[in-house]
Predict the 3D structure of the following.
Amino acid sequence: MGDALLDPSYDGFQIAVAVVFALIAVSLALFFAFAARQAGREMSLEAVTEAAYRARPLWLAFLAIVLGTIVCVTLFFTPYRPDTAAASATVKVVGGQFYWTMDPKSVPAGSDVIFEVTAADVNHGFGVYNPTGQLIGNVQAMPGYTNDLELSLDEPGTYLVSCLEFCGLKHHDMAAEFEVTEE
Ligand SMILES: [Cu+2]
């Protein structure tokens, strides 16, 4: 459930975003309504200062609770820690000036793929586009380090891999194809 909630393609994610947006919008509207009412009131500087100092620890406590809760809830679903045990295929990817090597170069449709991405020379950006041209995944390719990118590839076809970090004069040429075959 937690994982699904953080998946942007899941309806619940869109609903969660809408609810958070609505809460923030209503809070802002109430704040401005309150401020507009206060604007007409005469108040001494001392009274304003005193009120502000009284509100400050409450505001701190409010922020600590809200932000602390958000951190506690989301920390365990960090997207760049894919579940490698659940993957049905692993593809080793190396980016270099100016090429991609991928092994294997194709997987059957319906695969849960872990791309193990590294670089041979400088930093590159491993970007994957589905057959309709939408960017579906992107991770840094770094020398001496392997980043795991998890993608569920359900749609058969030719996927485009393109470098998304400027890496030299022929960066624009740094593209390759990856096949997802019919099940
Ligand atoms: Cu590159």
Remarks:
- The longest helix spans residues 45-74.
- The chain has three helices and nine strands.
- The chain has a mean pLDDT of 89.
